[in-house]
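Task card 7
Instruction: Convert sequence to structure tokens.
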Amino acid sequence: MLLAILRCTILIVVLATGMLVILLLALVPFRYKGIRLAAWVPMWMSRITSWLFGIQVVCTDSVKIQQHKGLILPNHLSYGDITTLFSVSPVRFLANHGVKTIPFIGWIAFAIDTVFVNRSDRKSLAAAKKKVSEKLHETPLPALVIFPEGAINNQEEQNLLPFKLGAFKLAVESNLPYLPVIIQYSHPDVCRWLSDSESMYTAMWRLAKDRHRKTATVHPLVSFSPDPAIRANLVAEQTRAFMCKAIQESSYR
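Output:
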């Protein structure tokens, strides 16, 4: 109990300090390795957080993620997947355009190169897709993460939920390469979030109390450049089968 309280207290300090640094660096127009300076801060925050909670993040090819220009498509097992990916490299995510107007949170999201879209307006989906495409071609780094399962997988760890088509339509129609990524945890009973049966806070408290040394392995596979002649649903099915096979053949358990 004391360990969990200590960890959560330090986490609050890390988050508060990191947010302040991000807001300050957002005023600096320069980029490092093609990435806004503020976008590097979450990487160090995530590395500190992973260490704090006893998780060693191991990537089999971090350069492949750091240099990828396009979409990153990981499997989705936990709320911790975001921190795990950030521990490897700066990345960015999609967010609803309303987030941009929230004080502090919206500023931070903008500072780390979040891509904003209006998901609530069905008529604007084509415009949103075009906006995302233009943003990624204008500033290709860091890569944009989209979880193709569309939700956390509460089922079998060695399998994947059916993929949503949005990411693949974006890749095909906008000529964006995509990189499938496999995330695996050495202690899934502690690191996973069974979102259909427990709250995120319950899952986080379980992790905070755990004393084991844990490993999160990030395994980028092969980057694909989608063929515009192939329909997005076929691309999604082929990618899912490829990722399922990689998970099942992985020596890491």
